[in-house]
Structures are given as C-alpha cells and as structure tokens.
Amino acid sequence: MSKTWLKTFAALAAAFLFSSCWWQSGDSSGDSVPEVKGFELLNYIPSDACGLIICEKAAAGLENLFDSGSVFRELSYGRLADSKMVISYHYVGELIPMIAVDAGKTQADVKQAADIIESAAEHDLQARIVQKPEKRGKRNVLLISPTAAIIDAAERHMEAHTSVMEVVGITEALEKAPARGDVVIFRNDAIANLLPKDFLSKYISRKQLVGFIKGYSEWTVMHLSATEAAGRGVYLTYDVRTVQPDDFSKSAQVFENQGYGESKVANMLPQGTTYVVDQPVASMESLLEARRKNLDARSSLNKWNNVCSQLARSTGTDPVKWATEIDIKEVAKVQWKGEEVVLIRPAKPLVSHNVRYNPHRGFVNTLFGEGFAIA
Hints:
It is built from twelve helices and eleven strands. The chain has helices spanning 3-16, 58-65, 107-122, 148-159, 170-175, 191-194, 206-216, 252-255, 284-297, 301-315, 319-326, 363-368, and strands spanning 51-55, 85-91, 95-102, 126-134, 137-145, 182-187, 219-229, 233-243, 273-280, 328-336, 339-346. The relative contact order is 0.12.
C-alpha cells in the first residue's frame, strides 16, 4: 500500500464521516475508445481498475507517492523520468498496482524502456512495452507490475478495444480533474477493496465508513499538490471533487448548495484530542430539506420520519423542531484519551446547566448521520 492511499483516505474520512471491487461497464464502442486530452494513458488501463493515480512526471510522482523502500522507486527511469505516468490498482484477492509510463515514440525512448524492463526483472517485477495505434502514430507505453496477470489483462483489453475509459462516469470524473498535475480518481463502490482493513477502526466501524463513502458520490477526484518544507519532508494537499447523478441519491448533493458555515470547534478541543469530525451549518432548515430529498431518492425517507416520530414520542421533543429552533450552527464529534463527546453550537447561547442526563439522545446522529453517534 502506498503512502498516497493512506493519506488520501485520511482526508476522505475527515470529509465524509456523516452518515467487491465492481465497476459498471458501458456498452462496447468497438474501435472508438473515448479519449480525453491529457489522459490518453488511461486507454491502456483495464476497466476493472479500483483506483487511479495520474502523475505528471513519473519519477517525481513515485518519490512523492511511494515509501522510500518501494521497489518501484529502485528502478532508474532515465529519460522517461519526466514522462507522464498512471498507477492503477486492481483487486485480485489483494490490491495489486500496475504502472503505465509513456515511453514516447522515438527509438531512444524505446531503448530506455527496454533498459527499465531489464532492471525490473532483477527486482522480480513484470514489465512489458505495449503499442496502440493513435491518430498521430503508435504510442509506446511501458507497463510494470508485480504480477504478470495484470499486464496480460491490460493487453487483452487493448486487443478488445476496451479500457477504463469506457467505464460509466469516467469522462465526467476527468472533466473535474486538471489536464496537468497529479490526480487521484476512484469509484466509490470500490472503497471496500481500497481501504486497509483496520483503517480508522479506533474511531468508526468499517461498515459505517465504507457505507458512507459508497453513498457519498459515484466518483471521487482529487488533485494533489506536493510542497516540500525545509527539513520536514513532502506535504500533500488535496482539492477534492465528486461526481454524482442528478437524482439526489448521493450524500454529496446534500452539501452542494448549502453555503459555508463557520467552524469554531478548534477553540475548545481538549488537550490530547486524537479524532474530530466537524460539520459547520450555514442554514439548518436548508440542510434538513436537502437531507430529506436525499433520503427520499434512496427510498429511506419514511423510515427516517418514523425514527423522528419515535424520538418525539419518547422524549417529548421533535428532533427536527428542536434543531431548527436552536438553529444549530455546528456539530462535532471529538475523541481524546478514551473519551468521546458530541459538541453542538446553536446560533444563540443556551441556558447554562450542570451536567445532567441528555434529554435529546439520538437526535444528532438521526439528523446528521451515524458518524456523530457516540457509545
């Protein structure tokens, strides 16, 4: 597992905690595999890929994205070091990467690729040069993987004129990515195979985390920016964008038009805080309206209404009315030293009380999602 996936999912978990690697392939288009400028290398990637990392420059990308002990970094890429590269991940009982490097069209580039293949064999890696006719001649692409089966699959897909570019939604995902720069793209349905088994297990159940990310959007696109601080290593920042249908069935649509709320939770975090998930709210009424649309699109609105009604009967207070009356502006779940608490910031300060039994148990996770539930 590369450093990138771990850092990527850490960023995702912080953003997404509210509420079989399978890709749905589109119809075969024969020889007319779609192309998007800047992403031509994706035509060499099999359609069963779970995730993609697109790097502007191969050597720099490998240095930023893989640990120093990675076998991929032990290869010398020579004149191909500045070539574009795609790292794809395929699930075959375990997550296996394949690297596709643009080997150009000159004999010098091909010779360099041949030298890399020889070096790859010395490191127990499989490598092969493949060619595919393009409008401006044949492009040479160097494929490298720990497993020959992945490279064989790539060649079979090429012969059948299919690739990841034919997967439903990939074009829309690429439209949200810059044509230059390093980009991570994955289909949310594949998240169970991409996440390490124990990822964030101290803070949230795997079922909740996987369920939320799968329900958040169809695709996630992240533009990566690497900056190097003197003596502190490389820092990665992420511009995260999502792709979802128009039917309001994905959670991302709940937040698209909500505006920006103000976060103040950092001012009161306990010393030793290890985990925070925070949701600023611009308008509680608008957020609840969008949440109802999302639940309705997922055929879950009646169930949610029933839960709210049951809470109203058992507590004497309607959760929706309570949230809108105090006009919640921020909710956060915080964990530290084995303790956890949910913090709620209303628009106006409430009457101060001593510690007492919570009369609104179940309200926050019902309104905002299970990511805010506490034991």
